[in-house]
């Protein structure tokens, strides 16, 4: 009985081919690297997913760098100043 439930739950959570195509198409539209290509250029789903992962990693690096810069800036201003309040709100 539990084997049947696990098969049902895994099949219920699977994505159909049409859903996968739709998701990959949406990713193609928002990825700068792939979105700049001509529409006629074929890009595999695995390439789109790889580029998505790379893009997310780059965004995370940018967030880390900006957070570090804001932290350094916060150290250089008076902690009661309006500028410090703005920087603290950006770091949260």
TrEMBL record:
<keyword id="KW-0539">Nucleus</keyword>
<dbReference type="Pfam" id="PF23174">
    <property type="entry name" value="bHLH_ILI"/>
</dbReference>
<dbReference type="GO" id="GO:0006355">
    <property type="term" value="P:regulation of DNA-templated transcription"/>
</dbReference>
<dbReference type="GO" id="GO:0005634">
    <property type="term" value="C:nucleus"/>
</dbReference>
<dbReference type="GO" id="GO:0040008">
    <property type="term" value="P:regulation of growth"/>
</dbReference>
<feature type="coiled-coil region">
    <location>
        <begin position="49"/>
        <end position="76"/>
    </location>
</feature>
<keyword id="KW-0341">Growth regulation</keyword>
<keyword id="KW-0175">Coiled coil</keyword>
<keyword id="KW-0804">Transcription</keyword>
<feature type="domain" description="BHLH">
    <location>
        <begin position="4"/>
        <end position="59"/>
    </location>
</feature>
<dbReference type="InterPro" id="IPR044293">
    <property type="entry name" value="PRE"/>
</dbReference>
<dbReference type="GO" id="GO:0046983">
    <property type="term" value="F:protein dimerization activity"/>
</dbReference>
<protein>
    <recommendedName>
        <fullName>BHLH domain-containing protein</fullName>
    </recommendedName>
</protein>
<keyword id="KW-0805">Transcription regulation</keyword>
<dbReference type="InterPro" id="IPR036638">
    <property type="entry name" value="HLH_DNA-bd_sf"/>
</dbReference>
<dbReference type="InterPro" id="IPR011598">
    <property type="entry name" value="bHLH_dom"/>
</dbReference>
């Amino acid at each position: 009985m539990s084997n049947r439930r696990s098969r049902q739950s895994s099949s219920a959570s699977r994505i159909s081919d049409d859903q996968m195509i739709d998701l990959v198409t949406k990713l193609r539209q928002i990825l700068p690297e792939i979105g700049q290509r001509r529409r006629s250029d074929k890009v595999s789903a695995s390439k789109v997913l790889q580029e998505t992962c790379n893009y997310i990693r780059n965004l995370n690096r940018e967030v880390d760098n900006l957070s570090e810069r804001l932290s350094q800036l916060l150290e250089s201003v008076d902690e009661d100043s309006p500028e410090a309040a703005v920087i603290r709100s950006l770091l949260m």
